[in-house]
Design goal:
alpha+beta, two-stranded antiparallel sheet, Arc Repressor Mutant, subunit A, single chain
Length: 347
């Protein structure tokens, strides 16, 4: 086994007290948790809790949103597209071009390379194919190579969906109205939702209960802005599995599931196996690039390097579309395996 510990400590979390970090964790797990519930759980006054929330909302750039069930909503299978340009593109132009479509949910450039990552979700496969081909043509002046992979299973995390995508979905119009509002502010009260929609409190309450029963919402949650002294990274892997591949892969998952207790921002924020140009995609946030590389790509290579035929590891630079899914969750509990994988506890 390599000499890197599974346990990970982030200096960024040291800037905040444990009660404040626990508040962020609770709101990440359920952004509609009331002040009374938080104050009771932490044995703090409601006033103290309210003051802490007000401060971190500003300091961390908190945005209350939804983790949605894309499959139940009828959204097409998500894709990771990697755009490699021969020459540096005009990122402002690229951002405007991407925002014209509802399909890119998150797009970002990386430091030091002419690369752009896109997390794309469409209302139909036809829409995705049309958008994929159209974008390739529109960006041809930059000499773009377009590598697309389909996400087959999300092991950890989510990417916030744009409200433009929700508008395109074929679901009950009353529920859609509510979904769009909650996607912009999942902590909004029924009274606030009622005023925004222009319908009676009781009608909105009934629709809200219908929405909860629909299964469309996996979690009322939050995202945070990128913070100073942190380094968000993205990585891609291509495998040529050899003997004991699954055993080696299971060992790497121990590191993915390890995190600070009550971490302010979870270390790994998204991981998923792919089919297509790449076999695995992940995003994480670390104190700096060096530490991220050491605890991420270097560690994976030490454990399962003989199975890896290609890899990319980059620091995220500028977000062009959407929001990075920074939040605080219990990664070990949230980590999801599919049937054909085995964790070390089962080896």
């Amino acid at each position: 086994m390599p000499g890197i510990d599974y346990e990970f400590h982030s200096a960024f979390n040291d800037n905040y007290t444990t009660p404040t970090r626990r508040i962020v964790r609770m709101l990440s797990e359920n952004s509609r948790t009331s002040l009374t519930q938080i104050s009771s759980a932490l044995e703090l006054s409601r006033r103290n809790v309210k003051e802490r929330i007000d401060k971190i909302e500003t300091a961390l750039g908190i945005h209350y949103t939804l983790e949605l069930n894309e499959e139940l909503l009828g959204a097409s299978v998500p894709h990771i597209a990697v755009l490699e340009f021969e020459k540096k593109p005009d990122y402002d132009y690229l951002a405007k071009l991407l925002k014209k479509s509802y399909i890119p949910q998150l797009a970002f450039s990386v430091k030091g390379k002419n690369l752009v990552y896109i997390y794309a979700v469409s209302a139909s496969r036809k829409d995705y194919v049309y958008w994929d081909n159209t974008m390739s043509v529109l960006l041809s002046d930059y000499g773009v190579d377009w590598y697309s992979s389909e996400i087959i299973h999300k092991q950890m995390g989510f990417v916030p969906l744009r409200t433009e995508l929700i508008e395109k979905l074929n679901i009950d119009i009353r529920i859609k109205e509510l979904l769009k509002l909650l996607n912009e502010n999942s902590r909004a009260s029924i009274q606030e939702l009622s005023r925004s929609i222009g319908k009676h409190f009781n009608t909105v309450t009934y629709t809200f209960h219908q929405l909860q029963q629909s299964g469309y919402i996996k979690r009322f949650t939050l995202t945070m802005d990128r913070q100073e002294k942190t380094s968000p990274v993205a990585f891609l892997l291509k495998y040529v599995p050899k003997k004991d591949f699954e055993k080696d892969a299971a060992k790497t998952r121990l590191a993915l599931k390890s995190d600070d207790k009550y971490s302010l921002i979870s270390r790994y924020i998204f991981t998923a196996p792919l089919i297509g140009s790449w076999d695995y995609f992940g995003m994480g946030v670390f104190d700096n690039y060096k530490l991220g590389h050491e605890h991420c790509l270097s560690y994976i290579k030490q454990v399962a390097g003989r199975h890896i035929s290609n890899d990319i590891f980059n620091e995220i630079d500028k977000v062009l579309v959407g929001r990075l899914p920074f939040r605080s969750i219990e990664t070990k509990t949230d980590y999801s395996l599919i049937d054909w994988t085995a964790d070390t506890e089962r080896l």
